[in-house]
Amino acid sequence: MPKSFTELLIDPWELAQRRQRLQGEIAPQSLSRLNAQLTQSAGQILFDWQFEIIEHYVVIVGQLNVQLSLQCQRCLRSMLWETRLETALCPLKPEQESDEQNLPAGYEAIPLPTARVKLGLLIEDEVLLAVPFAPLHEQCLAHEFWHDEAVSAEFEAAQKEQAQANPFQALAALKR
Ligand SMILES: [Zn+2]
Questions:
Q1: Pair 82, 66: CB distance under 8 Å
Q2: Mean pLDDT computed over 102-130
């Protein structure tokens, strides 16, 4: 196995014949489309994929454990986003595409242009589908500031104090 799984060319049909299981780690930054959404190099993608043949179809079953550094869309700080994805794919050769109706139930068809494909591309496609459009911290600092009633009460009290301390405002009040 080469050091980087990203560029590893696999033939799902050959792997399925041998009932091969592929396990390893991919650096999210090594996947160019995904990398465009990352804020930091922290994070990892662990894959555990079993290649099998079900009802004459090649299928890939397993999990992806994903950890990515994304930008929180509320406070714009970096956040670690984690998820576990179940994989149930049915790769199809170009001449197989018309057979989509007969696929084994529960598997998502992925038409492949060639028999050999980069493992990194297959994994990247799965992860990109799961990445949230607007990721948010579960406990976001910006959210806590604006929604913490104690903070906003303090803020209002400070504003009042400032208004009282302003002599021109006091004068204006007298004139009324
Ligand atoms: Zn945040």
A1: yes
A2: 93
C-alpha span between 60 and 52 (Å, rounded): 6
Strand-pair category, 78-92 with 9-10 = unpaired
pTM of the prediction?
0.77
Name 115's Cβ contacts closer than 8 Å, sequence gap at least 6: 11, 12, 13, 93
Q: Considering Cα of 69, then 70, then 76, then 79, what sign does the dihedral take?
A: negative
Pairing of the two strands 57-71 and 78-92? antiparallel
Enumerate residues with CB within 5 Å of ligand 1 (an ion).
72, 74-75, 137, 140
Structure tokens at 68: 């990515």
Per-residue pLDDT band for 1 (boundaries 50, 70, 90) equals very low
Q: How far is the CA of 79 from the centre of ligand 1 (A)?
A: 7
Structure tokens at 127: 């992860």
Q: Which residues share a beta bridge with 64?
A: 47, 85
> What is the C-alpha to C-alpha distance for residues 55 and 39, in angstroms, rounded to an integer?
43
> What number of CA atoms fall less than 13 Å from residue 122's CA on the CB side?
35
Contact 74, 65 (CB under 8 A): no
Ligand 1 centroid from CA 156, angstroms? 24
Using the mean position of ligand 1's atoms as its centre, give its distance from the Cα of residue 39 in Å: 13
